[in-house]
């Protein structure tokens, strides 16, 4: 009750009937578009995941309950691809964050080079993921890749290395490409956050006798924490859900070293034409992601208390 | 005194050298693959494949660009006897695909900003029933994995008779980008000083007028940043572009380049030309917006 | 003449599509009911008079300018038929078509391929051509056996070849000469010896490169062709039970040869595991390798002096195995179930289209069949086309027509083509790579592949 009275008293916060109507009207277009492409696909996918839907068996679609979920959980690829995904995310997400932070600190310096970098850094973001994958695969090629060419003309290697043909180097190569593609976005976000840190905080740190590292440790990092959290969550989602760059680069190989779980969700639908499995796996991935995000949020919040 | 100054200037020198060294490293990493594409696009196939390959073109030529725009077959692919050298004819669609991509991306960007700012402002300033629910619904919609919705999306667009149209791509990309835009602009609007808006409201402006005359001018950097995200996301998208387009009337660059790149008669030089041309619109875009982009982000993130 | 009459005439002449007709009609202020009855009337007249037919033809994106000019010529000869043409990237063609079929998007004729036929036919997306086009049955006798079997599902022929190529053993003759070798190897052991010689003389660090990239569908075909070239080179018995998992099988020997070449003798380029078709071709063009297995049309590219300064050095030899067997595949024109449902006129027009694009009348092949062979060097499915002097001359410019023909006679369609082949294929490509890398033993990999097969067969 008291709240209502207060709301009415402050003109900016008051929401008259007319205002509410205005609010609904302005939300409507955006909501309609998003809902139109969310509700039906969602219902449709839930339906698929609970039925036997194999396109090569067009006349046989019984309700099967949770069978699809059980079959996907028991599939041959689940363990290995979950492992590949975790390894990839565990390497790529920190690498993207570290790169983004380092570049943001560099861009935050005022000198001619940073103006140049601020434009250049946007370019990888603009390159379609499939194209980036093609380009990086070419760079890492073991026979005529420019990386081998460069390293051998600098005398660093004496024999060309087939980077994407052994599990360890293939994973490393993917991380490099992922940093190239995702790092710039992280850098731009962190740069923006850096610029919101009040100068006075650094002067105060200096008075306390803190040098560059100490200022970074006690001022910059804590101030960046909210943005770092957003970037961390976003990059985790990207690493788990999108597979195009990775897949174009390595095709999941060698062996199953880079076969990510999201790729199997795509494969179930488009290669095995088993729509039920595909939908079930997609929901399982989404659920796992929600759990990971909740754990992140809890961990980040509990740290903030101390 | 001079000693101190010398020390200071030496420190300054080291700092400058360090900064430029780091810039060179980052620049090399970020630009390397792109420069290499530019380089390859100017080389003949023979040079690209020689071992060790030339890092710089020996006889740079624009033949490959010329082929894409005029259809004149590069000298190295000349006609001989009964057999014509094979060349990826699909590459000739690049200019049209470029146009399609830019139209779709700009369309998404404009509509996105229009609808996004309207919704975001109401979310930021007006209390109404269902606010939390609708806001979370918008954000949550992005958790659906693309693989799960690809076929339903196709069914919807097909049912509306909109396959192979700009409209289909624009609407689908709006559903991908609107949630972010609404969230992002709302954060920014919440930061703006409310007093000016209140004054405008008391002076008899309605919400819409306040948004247009007071809020949007203040929020220009955020609009640019949100627009940039929408543009890049639409310009890059591949899977849905592949499924929802059918002919060069609407096929976008990623679709055409992916198709050129896997053709057995594609030359590396031709693929490079396609990639280089694909970088031009976003590069112009990036140069145009760079000033606003960080400022816009500063606002929204300062609040986060 | 009223506006409506103009519009109806335009519709009948095929100048406007039905959708355009409706939207223009609405602009004229007509209700959709009126338009609906007009359309129905038009459809009836079309039925009676053999009026205009619109066909939708879908291909993957290769040589689209050539396809378009072929369509233009066909339309000029058949003024009553218009062809709407759409093309999709080869790498995503299957996935795009699945979506299209599920969405019931109008599609009358489309490219298909032997490894998708079972799936598409089982789903009811394709119609058996021989039930609807009488000429298809008569073509059959003139196909190489791998072509017929690649287009057959449940005993019926579902296609007319667009092209039909074989996997061939190719080598760089210059390397052999420099190494003092008199000719290409006849067995896999001999290949190992020759490669060791070439490696030791420093001519090529990795004399062998193979198309083994996991995401290239060719990778399973290359492996299968290596199995076929050996004694008892079969993967399954006649009732589709795996035989590849028996100890000492041709499959086991093939894996052993590959992993030995990769890890012990180091004659096989480790980059093979990441190499799709184009990188293998470019690798050969760069002179870095001596031996490979590729589709024969790539020999045309390798011996193309405009692109490649080593042109002329690339020769073909029979597969180096006891039987010299290999894999042949067919990409073909197929008709959809939708087309058949459209009735006699559409089916009749499609029959003319198929004949123009892939058929022959008497001994006379359609110009399109010859064009792909002569201009693009694509292999073809017809035995008697080798009698054509123009075709023979064209192929002899970059290859050896007798050798090509012999490879086609020895070729077989892939073993195990069933509707669950795609699932087994994806699984097997991973297992094979693990075995090449030594992460699992040959026997364990083959056992896993057999278990997977049995599981899929049961389901």
Largest sheet of chain A: none
Tally the helices of chain B: what do you get? Answer: 13
Strand order of the largest sheet of chain B: 1-2
What is the number of domains of chain B? Answer: 2
Give the overall pLDDT of chain B as a whole number.
84
Share of helix among residues of chain A?
over 70%
The number of distinct β-strands of chain B equals 2
Poorly predicted segments of chain A = 1-13
Mass-distribution shape of chain B? flat
CATH architecture of the largest domain in chain B: Orthogonal Bundle
CATH class of the largest domain in chain B: Mainly Alpha
Order of helices and strands of chain B: HHHEEHHHHHHHHHH
The major sheet of chain B is characterized as: 2 strands, antiparallel
Determine the N-to-C terminus distance of chain A. 36 Å
Biggest chain-to-chain interface with counts:
A-B, 88 and 96 residues
Q: Averaged pLDDT of chain A, please?
A: 86
Strand proportion of chain A, as a percent range, falls in under 5%
- Say how many strands of chain A there are: 0
Structural class of chain B: mainly alpha
Oligomer: heterotrimer
Descriptive key words:
heterotrimer, B: about 300 residues, mainly alpha, MetI-like fold, two-stranded antiparallel sheet, 13 helices, C: about 450 residues, alpha+beta, D-Maltodextrin-Binding Protein, domain 2, 3 domains, about 50% helix, globular, disordered N terminus
